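Quick one, T. Sequence first:
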Amino acid sequence: MWMKVKVAAVWFALLSVISFCKAQVSPTALQRSFRQPPASAKPHTWWHWVNGNVTKEGITADLEALAKAGIGGVQLFNVDVGVPNGPVKFFSREWFDLFRHAVREAGRLGLEFCVHNCAGWSSSGGPWVKPEHAMQMVVTSQIQVKGPMKFADKLPQPETRAGYYRDIAILAFPTPKGNLRIENLRAKAAYERANNIVPAKGVAAPSEAVIKLSSIVDLTNRLQPDGRLDWEVPEGDWTILRIGHTPTGKDNHPAPQEGRGLEVDKMSREALDAFWKSAIEPLLREVGPLAGKVFNNVLVDSYEVGCQNWTPKFREEFRKRCGYDLLPYLPVLAGYVVESVEVSERFLWDYRRTIADLFAENYYGYFAELCRKNGLLFSTEPYGNGPFEDLVCGGRADIPMGEFWVGTNWGMETCKLAASTAHVYGKPIVGAEAFTATPEHGRWSTHPYMLKAIGDRAFCEGINRFIFHTTAHQPWFNVLPAMTMGPWGSHFGRTQTWWDNAKAWIDYLTRCQYLLQQGTFVADILFFVGEHAPNSAPYRPDLKAKGYDYDACPTEVLMRARVRNGKVVLPSGTSYEVLVLPDSDAMTPQVLRKIRELVSAGATIIGPKPTRSPSLQNYPQCDAEVQKLANEIWGKLNGKTFTERSYGKGKVCWGKAVEDVLAQKGVKPDFEFKGSGFASIAWIHRRIGNLDIYFVANQRERWETVECTFRVRGKVPELWHPDSGEIEQATAFGERDDRITVLLQLPPYGSFFVVFRSDRKPIDAVVSFQRNGTNAWLPERAPTKRLEIRRAIYGVLNDPNRCVDVTKQLQAMVQDGELVVQASNAIAGDPAPFVVKQLRVDYAVDGEERTVIVREGEVLQIPEGTRVLARFPADLRVNEKGQVELVAWQSGVYEIKTRTGKKRTIMVKSVPEPLALDDNWEVRFPPNWGAPEVVKFERLISWSQHPDAGIRYFSGTATYVREFEVPKDWLGEGKVIVLDLGVVRHIAEVRINGVALGVRWTPPFRFEITKFVKPGRNRLEVRVTNTWVNRLIGDEELPDDCEWHSDGRLMAFPQWFVEGKQRPSGRLTFTTWKHYRKGAPLEEAGLLGPVRIIVGSRHPLQTQR
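Structure tokens:
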């Protein structure tokens, strides 16, 4: 009975999410849920149980800390990543007891619980997978004989792995003359993955060099069980080819020994049934009625176990799909040419196509089916080194996922792949393994502000649920920061220095994810990825930069597309202005007929004219049909001198850029912006009923004032702030040429939603805002300093042979005394392939020499923090009465012009000078953590620059305390008082007179304190938290009491740790990986300022209604 209940529960939950996301949510309800999002909008986290180090108490503490911070669920992994082994063996009775406890605790705390389907992270294997159910590959052996003769001997058995081999066929044929072989065989025969395989064309193939179908003799039935063959060999030279299959030998990894075994056959339902019975059913039994209710999801991580190209039923599956028997073509898998190069290549195309279909149906598809039968959702990262179609396999999941990595752009293409999959298949949730980090980019150095820009970028690729990488389970309570997932990942969880403040950041993510899960994605371009296999989705950030977004779809989705009002519309509800075909001359007749249907109905198609079918099915008649259809549709187009023509109600283009076709069609860019030369703005557009919602994110660590133009008309823009939940009307906007331009002031890495509503009466928006004759929307600029790049080196810095001098390139990029550049191969090529490189820059600012080193993928901005701090003379905002008002921070003559031509001049005669609070701070550090408990800071400096080593190496939270005087005339009607902390490394929590004002984790570190200060003396407390980096480095100054491998691995838990004794070395931290060495550079830390109390005056301009 409980099985029926859990099936109903999980599917009710899924349908609720789908309907919630697709329903026409009222603006009022949307606002309410934006401020207080539902649980479905919360981020989740990966939860790694590392090398059997698991405790019941640690499980409870982990899950309570995650729930308190606002995490919505966990995805459990069991891994071996080089950490010393603990006592808990995977799938032992003790392990199951802990698993059951974890699921029960998740239920108590309202967390969803997902499990990776096997130990390790790739892909589906274990000790229960028998060789006959493992991934299989074709293997061959051959001998040459000369007839006439009687052959009676054992044939050599092909390569055999895992002690398992089975024959497929024994074929004999006249030995071809010469060395003609299939080029790139390993990829073409699916021994390894390669996208966009190009068949050989025009290869001369003398008749004596190929195997004629009519000459092949099937000797399979003559083979004896012991491998002996009896055969009367005809006259001539003959080759006897023994073809069989054996396991690939791949196992699941990185798994603890007791959970490691062969990978299951991805093309066999019978094999997956056996895997499920051993790997998943025990988990379901263990948690009973919590399955489908709490334990509600199974994950297949990114596919990293290579190709397979056979399964026991492959021959019949091939015949069913392709309409012919593959038996006589099997010599092609050994590299021979059968009949002709053309025929052999077409067979290989069908062969790969069948493999991809079986992966989609019998692995990803059947896995999803088994999950749903058991009341579970199915999540997957549908990409990797397997021979499948990424989009199709992702389409089988309930939650397709991508991944993205800290410090690099790698992975964003997988996020776009996952988003496209969700959009074209109608999946409401798009997940991402979020903030994965290499050993160079993780190592306890990450914090919310550091992660913000790349997270926002992932949102703009279409992700709407982050699953953090990672929370390593913390089994202990007597050491910090304790367990790591080996050297990998950003570190999320209760032992992080900043975890008590993490909720402020997680609330930001949750609000973003809530809005990004609503409505329908808006895009102009649909890429058809083609019929070949394997394949993936194109990644075109160049088109996004030009203001056009896109999706990609596979054949099965394209075949269900329709045309409405000139747009290609998918069953999921998404629609597109143009359909872009693959850059290929091959297309099957059935797909080409669909293309004809779409363009006839009014679609605009972009792509080359097909000339042939890629398949051997119905060859050569299939080519004749393709040519006839293509001539009908493309006519005389050649992609050069003739590039477009009308057909039916639609249009066909060949040789024209996508953006040019869109422009010719009258489709303006969906988003454009104008700002400084350094500006980089990411964006995404969704539509919820009559609301158009754009997420806009500054990708630079500097203030940017930008004019953003949105393809929306007749609506009023609002700014929805996901960091606070505040909603305000935009004050500066205008409509022109059916688009609306909104002026935005974006903080460093700042972001918000621009929501266009048709149910709001527009204000008389401001179009010009000046103070003393200069643009008041721009921050005051400090005098430009002279920046000179003295020397810049990119590569492996300690190896001159793997470095390149990029001094001239960087100097040429300097603008107005500032340099912003990403450390990447784009500067001057790749001096050290397959290695994470560094960029070292020796430079001078007004003659003062400095040096900075950044890792590959990171953005370098020098002088550092040039535009992080900005002083604006005034703000414009709509107040609680619906009035546009000026808040002046500086005196002067303000001139304001509205879009209706009205002008207003406001003379602000005086504004109090900001009160500087940069000296005489009392700073309190926690006891027994190296630093003095109370210390006086005469001036604000980084902890890393303090002469006291305990402060210099401090990691954690310290409290700054200071009193200040507020004159009586600062208070009263029309006054605004703001606390500006300046630069904070990295998180600040503020109290004024005992009242908590909240947490800031991203600049500007400003708090409006008008309501919380009083005339006379006031008390200010600022709790500041940094990362673990400085304390980890400081501990390296002390004797080591652990033994380490050269790569940072801990050899064994030290005796003092095992016995629970005090550390003999005096070190304060303990972690399971050595990330730093003695003398490593320290990070800036603490409250750096300048700290100021700023007073402004309010001046209403006009009434909204």
